[in-house]
Design brief:
There is one protein chain. The protein has 13 helices and 33 strands. It is mainly β. The chain has three domains: 225 residues, Porin (Beta Barrel), CATH 2.40.160.40; 125 residues, 2-Layer Sandwich (GMP Synthetase, Chain A, domain 3); 268 residues, no CATH class. The strands form three sheets. The protein has a 13-stranded antiparallel β-sheet with strand order 21-22-23-24-25-26-27-28-29-30-31-32-33. Helix 5 crosses helix 6. The relative contact order is 0.11.
């Protein structure tokens, strides 16, 4: 292992690098893809310099299509904003922004960086005569530098004398959006104070202070768009309290070009003195970057077609071990053709249970459907009831029971997707039957992989984006179902995370010393043993010991209660961990902690998952985490979280409390080939030590939930693929 030498501080990475390395999206999204026949891409509004649907600096009342995801970058006068927008619900939009202001002595700092969140709510849709109306909060949980609120209306027009489409917007702004041309004042409003750590909701300032109108128009024709606006932002801090630029006018003008379905570019003249540019990328998890290439499923041939002889329906075959072993081998071969692995099969005269390992498909519903087809073409005609048990690490997740006659009758039904789940039962998997025929060649199992990795670090004040990348050599050994021993060696090829700033926390440095761990190029990332089992009905358990992640190792135990047909799950986890040496070999430092949480999971409509965790965190602080995550049927996940503990905002430091955004993109969505792998990242406005948990491999809930009724039904159409 090699200790890395200090490096010279570098400037922020270009935005294209942030997208390409930080999210892996830029390349496929900047190219057009073929439009499926009969499908019309939804019209999406353009974005403003704050990354929200709008004019140039001012907002509009528009919303994106549900689930739209839009990163963008905008720059003028040395002010660069990197934005991330998501349409969380049809009427609710959320955004995250990171702003860099170059060294112009703003607030007494050098280069100044700021992170903030936005939210917009639709009050009502646009009608034939009425405009769309929305209300929004800008920088509602940051330092307050960019804070502002607005009430805005937008109407689309189609004048006969003008080709293309015309959009007009007018609104009222408060805070930053009420600082130029004020027409009234509503109460008192505080102002930004240098050194403010931000992160807390300033509810006492919302819709307070000066009120100013703003307005604008946008005309689009073909791929081109022209914008003009009257801005109510005086840029007091940048032009009066500092000399970032000179504001000579209230009017802004711009022209935009739609380079592809995803990419939009713009150039602008702002405030009578500055030129600016934007680049906007828009995509939607519902529309894959490439078409998924799946082998065609084998049709279900009714037994009445191929088993007309009554002698074929006898159940006597089930009394012969030779016949059962032959049937097992036929089923294993049929499943292998679909990329599925038969763990075991229990065969009776009229019933059969198949435990399967799904290593190919992200959708468990698709895997269950393919298994049902394989059973229909492999098992003797006397078998009427199929019991299909998806497994993970040897752990049975659930049992889906389907009548073979229903499978034969419903395949070509107009309502096949709904009908099959109306007659299917989802139950607790239970233990493996004593008479089950196990696929003996599966255990012991040894596997290795050699894969690239990326490890990003966000929002260091000296360099907002850092990244390490290299390769991982992974190996795992499973001597029997439910047992696993695994490890990973990591070799960094290049990176600059090691140049990050030292921590200045008042709490134990449980995460802020990341740069110390990044000093070494060759490391032992993981080395642990794991046992999974089902201690009782609707119960799942895990016990782990070893080096769990780059910073911590120790002991971990978890118990989960999750009935297959319930939307509620309850879990408990207890860990005793010790901080690893910076070189990430086998040694430990002198910090250890007992940490654990009680968790509640609730599946909500529209594939939302609400999770609440309460307990003790790595720094010894006590509190809770609330997270809300939306999972799309193609595997995309987008969510947010916040953690509040007994650590005060002052002791926590910059940001006041832990919060962030989580994103997971399935590789199959990007590549067009079935895969269970995904690229995930967590973006925190600032990494501090309060509210931090140890990363333990193999936590149960996500795997268990994927094979329970609600998840299976949400993807019910994929049963027949």
């Amino acid at each position: 292992m090699t200790r890395r030498s200090p490096r010279t501080p570098q400037r922020a990475a270009p935005f294209w690098m942030v997208l390409a390395l930080g999210s892996g999206l830029a390349a496929p999204l900047m190219a057009d893809t073929d439009t499926p026949q009969g499908f019309a891409w939804p019209e999406t509004p353009s974005l403003n310099f704050y990354g929200m649907p709008g004019l140039i600096d001012m907002p509009t009342a528009e919303m994106m299509p549900d689930a739209q995801f839009a990163p963008s970058v905008a720059s003028f006068a040395g002010i660069t904003r990197i934005n991330l927008l998501a349409q969380a619900l049809p009427g609710v939009m959320v955004g995250f922004r990171y702003t860099e202001t170059k060294d112009r002595n703003l607030f007494g700092f050098g280069d100044y960086y700021d992170r903030n969140f936005d939210v917009r709510f639709r009050l009502w849709d646009e009608g034939r005569y009425r405009p769309a109306v929305a209300v929004g909060l800008q920088d509602f949980a940051g330092t307050g530098i960019y804070s502002g609120e607005y009430l805005v209306a937008t109407k689309h027009l189609t004048p006969r004398s003008l080709p293309g489409r015309l959009k007009v917007t007018a609104g009222l702004g408060w805070g930053r959006l009420g600082s130029s041309g004020s027409i009234a004042t509503l109460g008192d409003r505080g102002s930004f104070t240098a050194g403010d750590t931000g992160g807390e909701l300033s509810t006492d300032q919302w819709f307070r202070g000066d009120v100013a109108p703003f307005a604008g128009v946008e005309w689009t024709y073909g791929k081109w768009g022209v914008k003009a606006e009257y801005s109510s932002d005086a840029y007091v801090q940048e032009t009066q309290q500092a000399s970032v630029f000179e504001r000579k006018s209230d009017f802004n003008f711009g022209v935009e070009y739609q380079a592809s379905r995803q990419l939009r570019l713009g150039a602008y003249y702002l405030y009578g003195s500055e030129f600016g540019i934007t680049a906007q990328i828009q995509t939607n998890p519902r529309h894959p970057a490439t078409r998924m290439q799946l082998p065609a499923p084998t049709p279900v041939v009714p037994r009445s077609v191929w088993a007309q002889d009554e002698a074929l329906w006898t159940e006597s075959w089930a009394g012969s071990r030779t016949a059962r072993v032959k049937t097992r081998d036929l089923l294993a071969e049929a499943l292998q053709q679909d990329g599925l692995i038969l763990e075991s099969v229990t065969l009776e005269g009229t019933r059969a249970e198949a435990r399967i390992r799904n290593t190919r498909y992200l959708s468990q519903s698709l895997a269950v459907g393919r298994t049902a087809r394989a059973m229909a073409r492999s098992l003797p005609p006397s078998v009427e009831t199929f019991r299909i048990v998806p497994t993970s690490g040897g752990l049975g997740l659930s049992a889906v029971e389907i009548r073979r006659s229903d499978l034969e009758a419903l395949e070509f039904s107009p309502e096949a997707a709904d009908a099959i789940w109306a007659v299917a039962a989802v139950k607790d998997a239970g233990p493996v039957a004593s008479e089950a025929l196990v696929s003996e060649e599966l255990y012991p199992a040894f596997s290795t992989s050699f894969t690239p990795y990326t490890s990003p670090s966000y929002f260091d004040p000296s360099v907002p984006f850092r990244i390490d990348f290299g390769v991982d050599l992974k190996a795992s050994y499973s001597p029997a179902p439910g047992w696993k021993f695994a490890g990973a060696l990591r070799q960094r090829v290049w990176g600059n995370v090691a140049d990050g700033r030292p921590g200045n926390s008042k709490l134990p440095a449980v995460r802020t010393d990341q740069h110390e761990y990044a000093q070494f190029d060759t490391t032992l990332e993981q080395l642990y043993g794991e046992r999974r089992w089902t201690p009782g009905r609707n119960l799942y358990a895990r016990a782990s010991v070893g080096y769990f992640e780059s910073m911590y190792g120790g002991l971990s135990g978890e118990l989960l209660w999750k009935p297959p047909n319930s939307r509620l799950g309850l879990g408990a986890e207890l860990n005793y961990v010790r901080q690893r040496d910076f070189n990430q070999r086998f040694g430990f430092r002198d910090y250890d902690v007992l940490t654990g949480h009680a968790s509640a999971y609730l599946e909500l409509p529209k594939n939302y998952l609400l999770q609440v965790d309460a307990g003790r965190y790595l720094a010894g602080d006590i509190g809770g985490t609330v997270s809300l995550t939306r999972t799309f049927n193609n595997g995309w996940q987008l969510g947010g979280f916040f953690t509040l503990t007994n650590v005060s905002a002052e002791d926590f430091g910059e940001g006041s409390f832990d919060k962030g955004i989580k994103l997971s993109i399935p590789l199959g969505w990007l590549l067009g080939q079935p895969s269970r792998n995904a690229y995930g990242l967590t973006i925190r406005p600032v990494q501090r030590d309060g509210g931090q948990r140890v990363s333990v491999p193999g936590r149960l809930y996500g795997q268990v939930r994927s094979a329970h009724r609600k998840s299976l039904q949400e993807q019910r159409a994929r049963f027949w693929e």
